[in-house]
Fold:
Amino acid sequence: MIYERFCGGIFETNCYLLKASGGWILFDAPDGACEWVRSLGVDLKLLLLTHGHVDHVQDVARIKRQFDCPIGCHPLTAPMISDREFFRSFGFELEIQPANPDFLIEETPSRDFLGSQFQVLEVPGHCPGSLCFFLPDDRLLIGGDVLFAGSIGRGDLPGGDIDLLVQEIRKKIFSLGDDVTVLPGHGPPTKIGTERRTNPFVGLE
Structure:
């Protein structure tokens, strides 16, 4: 699977552009992602969101206007991108340009996105409705803010639960196999095996 990475916004948030058989898919939309995709001359066909935290969704509305592509997300992510005031209700002085999802995604062993088969995993604890997208044939996981190189997603934001996150990583992510490459929402790629052996938050007990 061919992919490109862009890191944008003040939180240095990653997004990933993958070439499926039916066209290009963008995973997450940090600040600057729309301009980056446009600069590549890519005809974007689909935007999928791992979760709704503001640093991952700031360019959703811009991308929708620019490419008129469908947006898919978890049902719990939908209000985070459609309600301009959502984050203000939690005390954050942040707002986004609202956009409505075109379809909803929940955990499933197999779902076709533009001709590529993904396993979709719901991994709560960092953010309600947090999704990871796994390509079994490519041994590739688009992981959002679940598992990082040497760390994990924070659990102290609204709706977070660090114990639940650790539990779900060990149950759902580690079981995918040590050879799987993780493309995280922040920082460099890593391998599940590396994190299982060495990650101080979720490694070997």
